Amino acid sequence: MAALKGRDLLSLADLTADEVLELLLLAAQLKSGQISIRCNKVLGLLFYKASTRTRVSFSVAMYQLGGQVIDLNPNVTQVSRGEPVEDTARVLDRYLDILAIRTFEQQQLEIFANYANIPVINALTDLGHPCQILADLLTIKECFGELSGLTLTYLGDGNNVAHSLLLGCALVGINVRIATPSEYKPDPTVVENACSIAANKTEVTVTEDPITAAKGANILYTDVWASMGQESEALARIPVFQPYQINDQLLSVADKKAIVLHCLPAHRGEEITHEVMEGSQSKIWDQAENRMHAQKALLASLLGAD
Hints:
The protein has helices spanning 17-32, 53-64, 85-95, 106-115, 130-144, 160-172, 188-198, 210-214, 234-241, 248-253, 274-277, 284-303, and strands spanning 42-47, 68-71, 98-102, 120-122, 151-155, 175-179, 204-207, 219-222, 259-262. It folds into two domains: 2-128 and 291-303, Aspartate/ornithine carbamoyltransferase (Rossmann fold, 3-Layer(aba) Sandwich), CATH 3.40.50.1370; 132-287, Rossmann fold (3-Layer(aba) Sandwich). The protein has 306 residues and is of the alpha/beta class. Helix 2 (53-64) packs across helix 12 and helix 3 packs across helix 4. The chain has a five-stranded parallel β-sheet. Strands 2-1-3-4 form a four-stranded parallel β-sheet, sandwiched between helices. It is built from twelve helices and nine strands. The protein is 43% helix and 13% strand.
């Protein structure tokens, strides 16, 4: 994918529909062993937030490509002592080939991208989680063969995952329904952007009604009700979000062949029941594995590897 070489991925809105589909094809080919790509490059991971899947999947993906990984823990680097983002970005640009950042504010990510010439990847911000959704789309394609015309229902907090699902689904032709309590709806600007991308080709819906949103859906998707940095609100949110729990009752109104996804970590008994998470319709573990394959394709494409 020469078109992506040297570019940043700060949001799924940075990609076209064709580029997303090409990334998914490359990820599937890498996963199956149909093709092999090698690149002797160095990936930096600058993570201000805790991580399991993102950290490990990026690391393993880069190692499997033949590259190396440097874990730039902010607590043991000068950023913890107040070094300006601009200075850190310009220095890392001269050491690394590519940089993945997991942080809070989208603006910080954008500053890094502005001051570094190497590709910068959004490994999660409060606004978006594009790498997660690439893995989600790969999982959905594995299950259904095609993406266009399917319906995905996301239930819970209108957070970064909801934002990226809106954009990703709109790009590939999946109808997307976001069901949240009234005070936890996704950012209206992101919704507007998704509607613009969909351009009447797919359905983009934001509602407070979880049952209506789940009816006939091919994919039910959820995330924790309180994201990182919102832990103090967790207990207060439980009664508000309870109607949005993915359980057997909600699953029964979806399509009979519906799959269940969760970006993890999960709070069983809150946003999803143990029975559904471990049930036959759950594709959560395939979804988690696909983080590695999707990100391997992304790294190879941004680096222009052969």
